[in-house]
Amino acid sequence: MSSADSFQSDSSDIIFIIRMYTEGFSKKTISEKSGCSRNTVKKYINQFIALGKSFDELNQLSNTALEALFKAEEPAPSSKLEVLRSYFPEMEKALKRKGVTREMLWRKYIEENPDGYQTRSSYFMSLGYKAKF
After folding, report:
1. Do 89 and 59 fall into the same domain?
2. Is residue 1 domain-resident?
3. Is 66 in the same domain as 106?
4. I need a labelling partner for 37 at 20 to 30 A (CA). Which of 56, 107, 110, 119 fits?
């Protein structure tokens, strides 16, 4: 997508993507012609469909109105997730010591954070945290 300095180019990218979509172009073609990733193209197309508006209605909107419709705020991570993430570097160091297992560290986390994540999915998140965070 265009630089984040100005929404002007972002709004014109959005209009370009939606216009091409309504004209029947594939997401791959739209991605190539707009210079946006396919995921960005999919995101804007899905938002357009969910809005239930026509291309002409969107094309008449101001840049500010387009921004309000299409520029979604990223949700802030929950405090539980922040606490869990803060344990990952400590877990990584501890796992280098002989006799320390992930299970032991997970039990310690649950013991110290009874209101924290209690599911095994959180445990498995810790296994590959470097790649994801």
Report:
1. no
2. no
3. no
4. 56
Do residues 25 and 39 touch, judged by C-beta distance below 8 A? Answer: no
Print the domain residue range for 119: 79-132
pLDDT digits (tens, 9 = 90+) for 54-103: 888 888 888 888 877 777 655 566 777 788 778 888 888 888 999 988 78
Which is nearest to 46 in space by CA: 67, 29, 69?
69
Domain count, the chain: 2
Domain limit, last residue, from 24, 41, 70: 70
Q: Please name the residue that has the structure tokens 């501890």.
A: 94
Residues 47 and 87 in one domain: no
Owner of token pair 């924290």: 116
* Nearest CA-CA partner of 20 in 7, 32, 8: 32
24-33 pLDDT, tens per residue?
999 999 999 9
61, 5 Cβ separation under 8 angstroms: no
- The C-alpha angle with vertex 122 and arms to 97 and 129, in degrees rounded to 5, equals 55
pTM greater than 0.85: no
Whole-number Å distance between alpha carbons of 120 and 122 = 5
